[in-house]
Amino acid sequence: MDSLMMHDALASYSGRRVFITGHTGFKGAWLTFLLKELGANVMGYSLDPATTPSHFDLLQLRYMIHHRSGDIRDADKLSREMQEFQPEFVFHLAAQALVKESYTHPAGTFDTNVMGSVNLLDSVRTCESVRSLVYITSDKCYENVEWVWGYRENDRLGGRDPYSASKGAAEIIFSSYARSYFSLRSNLAPLQPARVMLLEGGIGPQIELFQTVYDRYKIVLLLKYGTLMQLGLGSMS
């Protein structure tokens, strides 16, 4: 993508309504900050930050956006907030994101990552203002066969631990909604799940900050053009 296309993609968010779940997390906070810098009108829906301090609080994002404290497992509240805001773009990042935590609380992990995702997708289904959805899962959604190569888009979905299994399930649910509902809406751009790898540590040295910002811009560009990264659904067989 050349610099002119990138400029157009980023400029297109000025004044647009963007709804983000998980905006108090590490990645969500940076995405929220960048979208605000681009002039977007942002509503964030998430649990309170899990750490003190947090990027969300250090960036003072609660004073810059429409901040809503809520759980994606609360289907009625999630749908109500989305309907009231009438977003054009939706980013779904909220999740129980820790493998170790999933062993301790497997039911809660599946409830958040599976039913929480169902609630988000159903909220989008009933909100006619939504033009595009970026649905974040994880590279853990693939069946781990312990090989040395990286996983490909057509590799089998799976997961031996509860977290990985929940992310594989979330991919299948997305595919169902995309084909059963979203493909019938003429105002909705082509949709793709985005599988995000682990980002370790805080903002660290400047080079780490640059890489984090660059990764967030890639997601923003994906929302605009849909094909920046070739993201397909892995094999379910």
Describe the structure.
The longest helix is centred in the middle third of the chain and has 20 residues, at 106-125. This protein has a single domain, classed as NAD(P)-binding Rossmann-like Domain (Rossmann fold, 3-Layer(aba) Sandwich). The chain is globular. With 237 residues, the protein is of the alpha/beta class. The chain has eight helices and six strands; from the N terminus they run αβαβαβαβααβαβα. It has a six-stranded parallel beta sheet with strand order 3-2-1-4-5-6, sandwiched between helices.
Number of helix segments? Answer: 8
Count of the separate structural domains: 1
User: Mean pLDDT, nearest integer?
Assistant: 79
Helical content band: 40-55%
Task: Write the CATH fold name.
Answer: Rossmann fold
Q: Regarding quaternary structure, how should these chains be classified?
A: single chain
Fraction in beta strands? 5-15%
Largest sheet descriptor: 6 strands, parallel
The CATH architecture is 3-Layer(aba) Sandwich
User: Over all CA atoms, what is the radius of gyration?
Assistant: 17 Å
